[in-house]
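REQUEST
  id: r-88c1
  op: predict_structure
  target: asparagine synthase (glutamine-hydrolyzing)
  payload:
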Amino acid sequence: MCGFTGFIGNTENAGSILNKMMDRIIHRGPDSAGEFLEGEAALGFRRLSIIDLESGSQPFHNEDNTLVSMVNGEIYNFQELREELIGKGHDFTTHSDCEVIIHGYEEYGTAIFSRLRGMFACAIWDRQEKKLVVARDMFGIKPLYYANMNGVLLFGSEIKSFLPHPAFKKEVNRDALKPYLTFQYSVMDETFFKGVFKLPAAHFMVYKEGQVSLERYWEPSFDVNEKPLEETVEEIDSVIRESIQAHRISDVKVGSFLSSGVDSSYVASVLKPDKTFTVGFSDKNFSEIDNAQILSDELEIQNINEVLNSDECFSELEQIQYLMDEPHSNPSIVPLYFLAQLAKKDVTVVLSGEGADELFGGYDDYDVRPNLKKYRKLPAGLRSAVGSAAAKLPEMRGKQFLIQGGLPVEKWFIGQANVFPEHEAARMLKPAYQTGPTVAEIVQPVYDRVKGKDDLTKMQYLDLNLWLVGDILLKADKMSMAHSLELRVPFLDKKVMETASRLPAHYRIGANDTKYAMRLAARRALPEVSANRKKMGFPVPIRNWMREDKFYQQIKSYFTSDEAAEFFNQNELLALLDEHYTNKANNARKIWTIFMFLVWHRRYFVSEQPDAVQVQLGEESALV
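RESPONSE
  id: r-88c1
  status: 200
  body:
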């Protein structure tokens, strides 16, 4: 795994600037560096050696040196593509899987991106046409950002790499804060840095003569193909096992993350690595270590685990938010950071279970509960009126039941996080930050692409396009690469997606459980107790921490700061905090979401020093 950064546009001292930009992402690739500088083009690469350790350095060049490329990722069908391209006359200079992209682009143009099986973000510079093409994998597993500022296009794996460039203007995007308070992550294409954009998953971008154009090259389709259950289960098991085998290809040690859920357990049971890795907390019901240890013992593999404490977690919050690039309040980022740190001591590659819920129907919200089914038998007009009225009520028991039972899914489902209701988010903010798109403006364009599908498919599709790429995969990439660890996700595979997209709804959500058919497939590899165990989802005891005086005082110092006064109505913040501290309410997620924004803002807009950044490499720290 690697990282890259670069720019197109006239820049004084381009080589020096590029090196400073590359230093910002040295954690993504500590093994070596490569660069290309010519005229207005500057491409910089940091490498973490995984395949072809000796000669797989980048940038890559085609045969006549008219194209230059950099790739962050792994291509799992590279061998068949390589043979095909060699048959068409292409000469490869390395054994790297990623070299197929530059030759594939030379042969097929942008059509190559839809043929790739793997995770990738790439940049290709055409020296003759003075054209840059960047692309991102179909699920958005690998990140890619760009900014067109002051006559210069900046692009790279992480936003922080843009900071040293003189054309970069660092400014908070005022429109990003209100939706963040609801979704808990940066949900728009434009990031929290004004003028900096995420390239959406399954898209490529062309930059030429100062103009940017985007095009989508792949769209998930859900076309049901009803088959007997046993045949479907066999197909699921077969395609997942094949994907896990493809994802294990490496010239370095491979391990597996292991929680108590069926997804990572399925991966570990098929992979059978030498070691699995788990972290947890000492608080009751906040650890998956015991369950992970039981499965590892049954598989006769070693489970390496660690119990985290609150002090070490709080000490790393600023570093974590810095590494994320944008504020992100999913509490599971914290244990994931330490889990990656733990695994890196023994391996360079880990497999994990992300994506199974979105593909196979694993979230609780997807499951229509029996009492809700009964309620939906009432006349639609009555339910609609009740649901609309309930949506206007303050938070109370039964409100969500009435909304879900009475309103179309497009009106209430926004994904797996819904921290602040929209009206409450606005109440927290100063007028200047109450702008930005509404929740409906964010989700409706996604729903519009699956008109006519059933509610379950609509929810999965929304999560694939927003929650998965904006929350789950982003934190997986940033927290693993923070420790120079490559994380692979075999459920998020082209062939697995083809199988999952054909499942009828009743094979996704069964009478008694989510991921019905996939759980049956997992039983072929797992003991029944592990196959049926409910996911805990990286539980983090933030609600307990905030009731400890030392952490309460730390958060309060942020909430009463001059920085907070710029964005928030501080009386509202303190009311939330004190209600929670005195155990009058559980406001943990709301407090954490605001707190993480303020931690991020302080790190990037108050503490940030030009051309100097603290990064962690293994257990050492270096100022670069």
